UniProtKB/TrEMBL annotation:
Protein name stated in the entry: Diaminopimelate decarboxylase
Keywords: Amino-acid biosynthesis, Decarboxylase, Lyase, Lysine biosynthesis, Pyridoxal phosphate
PANTHER family, per the entry: DIAMINOPIMELATE DECARBOXYLASE, GROUP IV DECARBOXYLASE
Pfam families with a match to the protein in the record: Orn_Arg_deC_N
Domain Orn/DAP/Arg decarboxylase 2 N-terminal: 39-300
Superkingdom of source: Bacteria
Length: 444
């Protein structure tokens, strides 16, 4: 986080709060969100679009990265909109906006995504009046039907297409190549645009494409601008649709370790803006409202996870394992994508790194390793180990595997910490459980 420093006790301090004090108060594992880092990333996106893009722009937060009231609240307060992909994300975002008293004016900044939205999700979206990013034929036809059933006069939609752009990232998080489950196949786009132009209830505002996540190259996003503007040209001139919005998705990578070298937010925005402006000039089109929907690059570096160090296993000449009190349930990324993280010991910030150890979680699974070969000071039980850059796709992908309660989260700013997610309790774990009556009676 931007506000991280080492204080006079040689402890890690974030947002003016000593991490060891936070841990004493809130326990571990603990997600610690630095409000300033999050706000700064929002501003970098916003300001960069203002500097490089001559038309209107809107940054929307891909809330799948971390959807909760407080994170949505900070992002809304920075003027960003939201990408939601389920009724749960929509409900979370709306509740945050309602509690802040800005729901009404924010509705046109909410975009509903998803490759298999249910009828009830679509009805929810229609009742709210947010924009819907349509992914496939079934959804188009369902919307037309539901819209007329509900007496909606006009449904604001964008069409998502597969741009056919390859990029080098983990295969699980690539979405732009043709063999992807997301969006309309480009070969179908002519049929789709014909259909849409014949349905008066569909108000097709724009086009969307997303090529993948944790991307370091610039070329794919540069190409994407051109692809989308070509479709915009066709949609306007051949199908008479009044396309005014182009959404280039998210995907900018972040620096998890020293060897990661992503472009800055400013460089990314510049690339996207110039490619869209350039393509518009070539095609003699007015500049569309340009939308970007970053998730990871807004929230990832704004959060760290603090754990308490527990047991140690030394296997001579092979490896030393240090176990912490969380693991794949609060951070499933290493086991899912072989992601690499950096770590420090919050209460030993000025001690030299004395050993190379593997940081293991506490789950009953050998693959539950958070970091392989981390270099840290000699770690003792009770030390506070902090894993950096855990804001994106950690809490949002957290589980209760092994019936571990999900961690608490705090947001820190200028020396003040606020609890934003209560730590789950054992009672929470049983909240949805029911034992059938006949089993209760069996031994009575
Ligand atoms: N827009 C769409 C349509 C997306 O599918 C995604 C991410 C984003 C925007 C935001 O992408 P970002 O800026 O965060 O890269 N769980 C994986 C990442 C999955 C990304 C899914 N879609 C991970 O932990 O790496």
């Amino acid at each position: 986080p931007l506000s991280a420093r080492v204080n006079s006790k040689n402890h890690l301090e974030i947002g003016g709060c000593d991490v060891t004090t936070l841990v004493a108060q809130y326990g571990t594992p603990l997600y610690i969100v630095d409000e300033m880092t999050l706000r700064t990333a929002c501003r970098q996106y916003r300001d960069s679009f203002k500097s490089y893009y001559s038309g209107e722009s809107q940054v929307i937060y891909a809330s799948k990265a971390w959807s909760c009231l407080a994170v949505c609240g900070v992002i809304a307060s920075e003027g960003l909109g939201f990408d939601v992909v389920s009724s749960g994300e929509l409900y979370t975002t709306l509740t945050a906006l309602e509690q802040m008293g800005i729901a009404e004016q924010s509705l046109n900044k909410i975009y509903f995504h998803g490759n298999n939205k249910s009828e009830s999700e679509l009805k929810y979206a229609l009742s709210i009046g947010c924009k819907i990013i349509v992914d496939n034929w079934l959804e188009l036809e369902t919307l037309v039907k539901l819209g007329s059933d509900l007496g909606v006069s006009s449904i604001p939609i964008l069409l998502r297409l597969t741009p056919g752009i390859e990029c080098h990232t983990h295969e699980y998080i690539r979405t732009g190549h043709l063999d992807s489950k997301f969006g309309f196949d480009p070969n179908q786009m002519d049929a789709v645009l014909t259909y849409v132009s014949q349905q008066p209830i569909l108000n097709c505002l724009g086009l969307h494409a997303h090529i993948g996540s944790q991307i370091f190259e610039r070329q794919p996003h540069q190409d994407l601008g051109g692809v989308l503007i070509e479709w915009m040209q066709k949609a306007i001139h051949k199908y008479n649709l009044s396309i005014t919005e182009i959404n280039v998705g998210g995907g900018l990578g972040i620096r998890y370790t020293e060897s990661d070298d992503p472009p800055s937010i400013e460089e990314w925005v510049k690339t996207v803006s110039l490619s869209v402006m350039n393509a518009c000039q070539i095609n003699n089109l007015p500049l569309p409202k340009l939308i970007a929907e970053p998730g990871r690059s807004l929230i990832a570096t704004a959060c760290v996870t603090a754990y308490t160090v527990g047991s140690r296993k030394e296997i001579p000449n092979i490896r030393t394992y240090i176990a912490v009190d969380g693991g794949m349930s609060d951070n499933p990324r290493p086991i899912t994508y072989q992601s690499v993280y950096r770590t420090v010991i919050a209460n030993k910030m000025s001690t030299f790194c004395q050993e190379t150890v593997t940081i293991a979680g506490k789950h009953c699974e050998s693959g539950d390793i958070l970091i392989k070969d981390a270099q840290i000071p000699l770690a003792r039980p009770g030390d506070i180990l902090v894993v950096m850059a855990t804001g994106a796709y950690n809490y949002s992908m957290a589980s209760n595997y092994n019936r571990l309660p999900r961690p608490a989260a705090v947001i820190v700013s200028e020396g003040e910490a606020n609890l934003i997610l209560h730590r789950e309790t054992n009672e929470d774990l049983l909240r949805q459980d029911r034992l059938p009556e006949r089993l209760k009676q069996e031994f009575r």
